[in-house]
Design a protein that fits this description.
Helices cover 40% and strands 18% of the residues. By secondary structure, it is of the alpha/beta class. The strands form four sheets. Strands 6-7-4-3-2-5-8 form a seven-stranded mixed sheet, with no helix packed on it. Helix 6 (186-194) crosses helix 8 (211-237), helix 8 crosses helix 24 (659-669) and helix 10 (263-276) runs parallel beside helix 11.
């Protein structure tokens, strides 16, 4: 950054600049925060005879011979000596210019891992350079940077060295903040991390728990919090319809329900009702474990919008889930005089035209898939957009729904619990409401792990259960490479179970069925006409059949933790004891073994999510949203959770009291990437 805060481009030949751009290096500021992956100690020499095997060291030797051998494969073999002993160096890839360096009598410094070879100590492909007896040793550790093809580590070292000498290292943290958090200065921290002095403990540097690393991590997390907080405040400046209920529609809906709301649902409803009555757009994430009752909270929010004279839209990621929501909401609201429209990609032309006309004319609640955001869908007065399983939609899709209505309030829902540190970091631009209690009547689910060699025992268990009057799901694996393969697996399982369970009614549902066929199968299962439902993961969310008390998941090792937890949550919805049987095929990989252990030992979605985060890392966890949020390069959400807490507080204070410093901090850490956050 220059004194004005503008980014200073990297001064390098154009070909090199293009390569640097591939790893996100465009400016001097980018170079300054492009930190080493690891360090190598070239500040000292180790005698050959004392070099520990298996460790990387630097030796200084004189070449005694250099020859190209052709057996067992073409290689350059260099033998060299120091006062303590002999070293062999092997190169399987080499050029004539490199051969020239190893002339007999030449003095060479080599850095690499020493191992036991046929002739004693040996290095394969060490880093080397020609020196003379007076060549001084480096005075700093050698940093090794993340790079891309065609950019040598030495080139990065030179560019970063120049940036450290002339670049902008001005402090962006207010002095009082830095002192209260006991953080070292930025310039000192960056110089230390790029050029650690001799004698620095490399273990502390590699573990990234040195105070200089802590300062860098804090600055990175602060940039993320500043950006998200600024987006949050900018939304507060925008106008949105004030949705104050003019009648008792919500109260009438509650009166006709066969159940009461939990304390968590009542709290969530109060928060949402308050948001909807504000003149700026609500941006709230409603999250709760499987079966926590998010749909009724969303329905009551829709009632408030409808009572205020506006429309509500409800978007779900799959047709089967959207249709279940449509039927449930219609069942609840149509008797109260609410017009509920349905939009999906599979509607026939005539039905689609009718539903589009109803939407444009002001149908009070419109339920659908991403068909809601396609061209030609016009809302008369969209006041509230509800997005279910929001992590399954990309940033652009959520934005498109918001644009449909000018600036409606947005309620996003997720049954994939987000660990607290992740919510604080990646969802800092949203208000988050958590449904942390399950409605009464949810029975605990027993989870069993069964090897696929015992499949017959599972079939016997299914038969016994159905004879007792219960129903079962049998879910087939998700085979990502091929929808056709997945379909075939479901079809084969269906035919096998038909043969294995004579006298029982077995149904089949998958993504390729037409909407009305899918609905007919689901309705038959809900009515108890189907005993065992074979399904692909289309039934992952939203299906509610109280009499189904067994979930069998085949090839459970192929599923992610959140999917396994979601599928397990399809049972235990009635008063019967429920089970989830996870059939797995060996041998299991380490991650599959970890996943199955976690799902077997835990029923709390938030604990499962926390452990899932440890396995997968945050980037994969937040899914489609990551296209709108910069991933953290240096901070670790599990290890550095306290930094996220501190950065949230500091971000609010800086935006209020030090806006110019906040601007310069963002420019240094995010540069052009900040635009992505606006979604």
């Amino acid at each position: 950054m220059s004194a004005s805060g503008a980014a200073v481009p990297i001064r390098a030949p154009e070909a090199l600049r293009k390569k640097l751009a591939k790893i996100g290096l465009h400016s001097e500021a980018d170079l300054l925060v492009h930190l080493p992956l690891r360090y190598e100690d070239e500040t000292r020499l180790t005698p050959v005879a004392r070099a520990p095997w298996g460790e990387a060291v630097q030796v200084e030797v004189v070449v005694s011979s250099c020859e190209v051998q052709f057996r067992p494969r073409r290689q350059m073999v260099v033998r060299a000596l120091d006062d303590s002993g002999e070293l062999t160096m092997r190169f399987f890839s080499f050029y004539p210019s490199q051969q020239a360096v190893f002339a007999v009598g030449a003095r060479v410094r080599a850095f690499g891992e020493v191992r036991s070879g046929f002739f004693g100590a040996e290095m394969v492909h060490p880093r080397f350079r020609k020196v003379d007896a007076e060549t001084p040793l480096p005075t700093e550790m050698t940093p090794v940077y993340p790079s891309t093809a065609g950019v040598a580590n030495s080139a990065l070292q030179k560019l970063i060295g120049k940036a450290l000498a002339v670049g902008d290292l001005a402090e962006t943290l207010p002095d009082e903040v830095r002192q209260s958090l006991k953080l070292p200065g930025l310039a000192r921290s960056l110089r230390f991390l790029h050029q650690p002095p001799p004698g620095t403990d490399l273990d502390t540097l590699h573990a990234r728990n040195h105070p200089a690393w802590r300062r860098v991590k804090f600055d990175e997390v602060l940039a993320q919090q500043l950006s998200l907080r600024r987006a949050y405040l900018a939304r507060r400046e925008q106008g949105a319809p004030v949705l104050v209920a003019r009648d008792d529609l919500g109260a009438r809906l509650l009166d006709q329900l066969p159940f009461g709301l939990t304390g968590a649902q009542l709290r969530a409803m109060a928060e949402i009702a308050d948001d909807l009555a504000q003149p700026y757009p609500m941006q709230r994430l409603l999250q709760g474990d499987v079966g926590a009752g998010k749909t009724i909270v969303a329905a009551l929010a829709a009632c408030q919008a409808i009572s205020a004279g506006w429309q509500a839209a409800f978007m779900a990621p799959t047709e089967i889930l959207a249709e279940q929501h449509y039927l449930k909401l219609k069942d609840w609201l149509a008797p109260l005089g609410v017009e509920v429209a349905w939009l999906s990609g599979s509607l026939k032309s005539k039905a689609k035209r009718e539903q589009l006309a109803a939407t444009a004319a002001g149908a009070q609640l419109v339920v659908g898939t991403h068909a809601l955001i396609q061209d030609g869908v016009d809302f008369a007065r969209l006041g509230l957009a509800i997005v279910d399983e929001q992590h399954r939609f990309g940033v652009a899709q959520r934005l498109a729904l918001r644009k449909k209505g000018g600036n409606p309030h947005q309620l996003m829902m997720s049954a994939t619990p987000i660990p607290r540190t992740l919510a604080m970091s990646y969802y800092a631009d949203l208000d988050v409401t958590v449904l942390d209690e399950l409605p009464p009547g949810r029975t605990p689910i027993k989870t069993r792990l069964v090897a696929d060699s015992r499949r017959d025992d599972v079939v016997g268990f299914v038969r016994k259960l159905v004879e007792e009057g219960r129903q079962a799901y049998w879910v087939c694996p998700l085979i990502e490479e091929s929808e056709a393969l997945q379909l075939q697996t479901a079809q084969d399982t269906y035919e096998t179970l038909l043969a294995d369970l004579p006298g029982l009614t077995v149904g089949l549902v998958h993504g390729r069925l037409k909407a009305d066929e899918k609905q007919a199968v689901m309705a038959a299962f809900a009515a108890g006409e189907i005993d065992v439902l074979v399904a692909t993961t289309v039934i992952e969310v939203g299906v509610d059949v109280p009499n189904a008390s067994l979930m069998v998941i085949e090839h459970a090792e192929r599923f992610g933790l959140s999917q396994l937890h979601q599928l397990r949550g399809r049972v235990g919805r009635g008063q019967y004891e429920s089970s989830c049987v996870l059939i797995y095929a060996g041998p299991l990989g380490e991650i599959a073994r970890q996943r199955l252990k976690i799902i077997f030992e835990n029923t709390d979605g938030f604990e499962i999510a926390r452990q899932d985060l440890q396995i997968r890392g945050p980037g994969e966890f937040v899914g489609a949203r990551q296209s709108g949020v910069p991933l953290l390069r240096y901070a670790d959400l599990e290890l550095d959770a306290d930094l996220v807490e501190m950065a949230r507080t500091v971000a609010e204070e800086m935006l209020a009291r030090h806006p110019q410093l906040a601007e310069r901090h963002l420019e240094r850490w995010l540069g052009s990437r900040e635009e992505l956050l606006k979604a």
